[in-house]
Design a protein that fits this description.
- Two copies of one chain form a homodimer.
- By secondary structure, chain A is α/β, with parallel strands linked by helices.
- Chain A has three domains: 2-53, Orthogonal Bundle (434 Repressor (Amino-terminal Domain)), CATH 1.10.260.40; 66-173 and 305-335, Response regulator (Rossmann fold), CATH 3.40.50; 174-304, 3-Layer(aba) Sandwich (Rossmann fold), CATH 3.40.50.2300.
- Chain A is 44% helix and 15% strand.
- Chain A has 14 helices and twelve strands.
- Chain A has a six-stranded parallel sheet with strand order 2-1-3-4-5-11, with helices on both faces. A six-stranded mixed sheet of chain A has the order 7-6-8-9-10-12, with helices on both faces.
- In chain A, helix 7 links the parallel strand 3 and strand 4.
- Chain A is elongated and about 85 Å long.
- Chain A starts with 15 loop residues before the first helix and ends in an 11-residue tail after the last strand.
- Residues 1-9 of chain A have low confidence and may be disordered.
- Chain A binds a DNA duplex through residues 15-17, 25-32, 34-35, 39-41, 44, 59-60, 62-69.
Chain lengths: 350, 350
DNA sequence: TTGTAAGCGTTATCAT
DNA sequence: ATGATAACGCTTACAA
């Protein structure tokens, strides 16, 4: 039994033929073992598996990719205005892929470009990707989903609400979460609450805005148009927009920003004007990114379970491949929850 | 001339055979064109190239990978305590790869695990990676570099100083940059300056610490041992360590933190104690990550040209492949520079 | 249940 | 300078 292949050296690459010879079977039989073919004699399988284990043989992914017409790569396609969330997306998907034969290929794209669609198409077809995870705002593009279907590329979309079937979608309930957060503000006694919404055309922005308006309506609070501003999910835009909100008279006593970056901008704007937070202005953000605990005061925010969502997306994608039934049922809906920190207080009297 | 292949549809995949037939040459000749073989008749090449352009033919990467024994994938291996910098690393490498046939595969690892080395070995050999970019602190591991060499995997290391030859290394001059920053603090009048250094065993931490001590020595300022603390490059550790520095009597009038996360922790600690920044305490960080402009006051810091360094690393890696001589000479040394913002002022009188 | 032969799309060898 | 033919390592018919 040749077995110098244990644990070291430049590895004189074993092939399926070597294993077949050692096991005294045909390469096809080895192939069947690798691919978990059901029609195989128990003993034969056991014998081959033993050899594989002893030798540490690993099938060549390139050869499999060529023969199968598909690679063992998962693509992560994104064009996210909020750099902070990119990391947690990656973390989640990587967690799902950990220990499998899949690797993660990342691909930032420019959704503004007229070529996005072709870019992504080339990406998936050229690399013959096993599947892709698509995150907001790109995940809101139905044409993209259709295109991936046409190309025979599996996909899972991440979103702030559900707009595709369970096999293709992992979502959070942003609307409810924001409604809760807004009710919390109202319960603290706030009545003039400003909203710095996300970019027009973003589903997440719309969901969060809807939740906000819903809670206000429920409480019978009218929302003057001047108290709402559409921005770009960036620190700078939060800062800029907060300026105009603070110019209003009477001034809002609280501001809900549709993400933490903008909330940090609001806090900064308040500081620039010498407005004390939370005494004179309460702030609530969304995402629970690290920045919330690095600024002063730490920001009350809505925790968005990004990592868990991405992991679910990854599992959903490869679930079919691994055949592990346990993983096929990766959950499709996740709940965000309010995290109370230091940026909210009852409004100043008067 | 068949040319329905222009711009749409599920793409009935062209192969090298199709191109060969259309051009009236053998597939080997087409292959030569693809691989820029020098021994080719100008006209033959032109003819084949024309067909390729017309049809939009793209060679199948999987087949090439199998035949060549190497993939067109670049790996990014990291185990970075500072999440913030991961993004800029990725951005830089992605920029270098943009428009090429290479894709980026990311691979976080746990350098604490006894299996790291084998993990990475499996990663590069299984995927037959074209090459990998290794970032600190993993890039300081010489055994890792040796192993990659053995496996025939190209690599480029990123570091805070140069410790490998120019082909394998892209570095910054952290020591000089920190010395400059420290001199700036001294020029402002500070004499009791605390240092919150990076983790023991990190080359970047050592370089930055050396720069700090160098500047102090040059100015004839003795550095009490109590003014130096080793920490983990995290916000929490910066916060914790700052507490003990602020307990000293007399208190330091300035603190240099070896990265921005820790500097943010210092700022937070000061706020907790009601110590005004920069009036009563000056702070300087390192990296110039986004957080520096989101806290109040914005942090003076040393800009670390991460994106440019990573791009250079990527170019260096694929330079040999693209054959573009212009890119082979990607620079190997980058300078960090001081960015003055609001967290430094002369020490309070007395 | 297992094996044989023929690909998958490219590159390398060795002629010519 | 170009082409026929055999790899590359695996999978899918199709037999046996």
């Amino acid at each position: 039994m040749a077995k110098q292949q244990q644990e070291e050296g430049p590895a004189p690459k074993l092939t399926i033929n070597d294993i077949a010879r050692m096991a005294g079977v045909s390469k096809k039989t080895v192939s069947r073992v690798i691919n978990r073919s059901p029609l195989l004699n128990r003993q034969t399988r056991a014998k081959v598996e033993a050899i594989i284990r002893e030798t540490g043989y690993v099938p060549n992914p390139q050869a499999r990719a060529l023969a199968l017409g598909r690679n063992f790569l998962i693509g992560l396609v994104y064009d996210n205005p909020n750099l902070q969330t990119i990391l947690s997306m990656q973390r989640g998907v990587l967690e799902a892929l950990h220990g499998t034969e899949f690797e993660l290929v990342i691909r930032p794209v420019d959704r503004g470009s007229p070529m996005v669609m072709d870019d992504i198409r080339r990406f998936v077809t050229r690399q013959r990707l096993f599947g892709v995870v698509i995150v907001p705002p790109l995940s809101e593009n139905d044409a993209l989903a259709r295109m991936l279907d046409e190309e025979g590329c599996r996909y899972v979309r991440i979103g702030s609400a559900t707009w595709d079937d369970a096999d293709h979608m992992v979502a959070s309930n942003d609307r409810d979460a924001v409604a809760d957060a807004t009710r919390y503000l109202i319960a603290q006694g706030h009545r003039r609450i400003g909203l710095i919404a996300g970019p027009h055309g973003f589903r997440s922005a719309q969901e969060r805005r809807d939740g906000f308006e819903l809670a206000l309506a429920d409480a019978g609070i009218a929302l003057p148009r001047s108290l709402v501003a559409d921005r770009h999910y960036t620190f700078e835009s939060g800062l800029a927009e907060c300026e105009s909100l603070l110019d209003l008279s009477p001034r809002p006593t609280a501001i809900f920003a549709a993400n933490d970056e903008m909330a940090a901008g609001v806090l900064y704007a308040a500081r620039l004007r010498g407005i004390a937070v939370p005494e004179q202005l309460s702030i609530v953000g969304f995402d629970d990114t690290p920045i919330t605990t690095r600024v002063w005061p730490p920001l009350t925010t809505v925790r968005w379970p990004t990592v868990a969502m991405r992991r679910a997306a990854g599992l959903k994608l490869i679930g079919a491949a691994t055949g592990e039934d346990a993983e096929v049922g990766a959950p499709s809906m996740f709940s965000s929850m309010l995290i109370r920190r230091g940026s909210v207080a009852p409004p100043a009297a008067g």
